[in-house]
Amino acid sequence: MTLAIEARGLGRQYRGRWALADCTLSIPVGRIVGLVGPNGAGKSTLLNLACGRLRPTTGSIRVLGGHPGAGRGQLARVGFVPQDTPTYARLSVADHLRLGAAMNPAWDREEAHRRVEQIGLDPRQRAGSLSGGQCAQLALALAAAKRPELLLLDEPVAALDPVARRAFLDEVAQLTKQREDRTVVLSSHVITDLERICDHLLLIAAGRVRLAGPTRDLLGDHHRITGARRTADSLPSGLTVVQESHTARISTFVVRAGEPLPPGDWHTEPVDLEDLVLAYLSTDEPGIAPRTTGGVR
């Protein structure tokens, strides 16, 4: 299987602190990947390693079969829009397009101009006078016109209003329809946005990968069960308890089951993407991880 990103034991250390540690993952080509996790989890570090702006402290990472940032050809295959959606305030929109054409060998001039016209930008307007949403759209247009095989987006919609955010995400979805082999990795705190367009999930917490895989499969494997108060150890063996809560009489668990959930004296509900992410993040403490039950007592 061709992989967009493959990491093995990947780690990055800053001044004695590990921003990312023992990260092992495989992201297939052609997916829209939702990258989630709390602030400081290591999401931006992973994206910067993938585009070659950072080098690993430990382990390895390969992008589209090559080393990140290894020459002009590899750089041309990857588009990156960082958190601050950088543009040059004194340059006009047209200047940005000319700069993009000069720096990228596979530059799609027609695509770049089409996108600028579609989002209603005046080519003569300086970037410093654009709104946050317009800057984000311009940055996406520049990244898309590179015709990248892999597009990395680091919380580009964080400062956008709901209308601008919806328009931006629609553009991202259209990019993947243009090329079946294009992969997008989108980091965001807004789970509902990811649920709309992402078909693959990568959850990072405390610098480590906690959950990864096709969204549909992950949702199908997880369940919320509610019943009379009990301990996690009393659940059938083979269930991984992700989250638990208790009242005086009722216990609720979010569990992962590799096979169909066995029958029991409980009520079962599916979980949505936000439920799933929050369940894993709620156990994000040193030394705490989802645990597998040992059998019925």
From TrEMBL:
Transport is among the record's keywords: yes
SUPFAM superfamilies recorded: P-loop containing nucleoside triphosphate hydrolases
Keywords: ATP-binding, Nucleotide-binding, Transport
Keyword Nucleotide-binding: yes
Gene3D superfamilies (alphabetical): P-loop containing nucleotide triphosphate hydrolases (3.40.50.300)
Pfam families found in the cross-reference section: ABC_tran (PF00005)
GO molecular function, one term: ATP binding
Domain called ABC transporter: residue spans: 5-231
Record-linked PANTHER family: ABC TRANSPORTER ATP-BINDING PROTEIN ALBC-RELATED
Protein name per the record: ABC transporter ATP-binding protein
Organism per entry: Kitasatospora cinereorecta
Taxonomic classification: Bacteria, Bacillati, Actinomycetota, Actinomycetes, Kitasatosporales
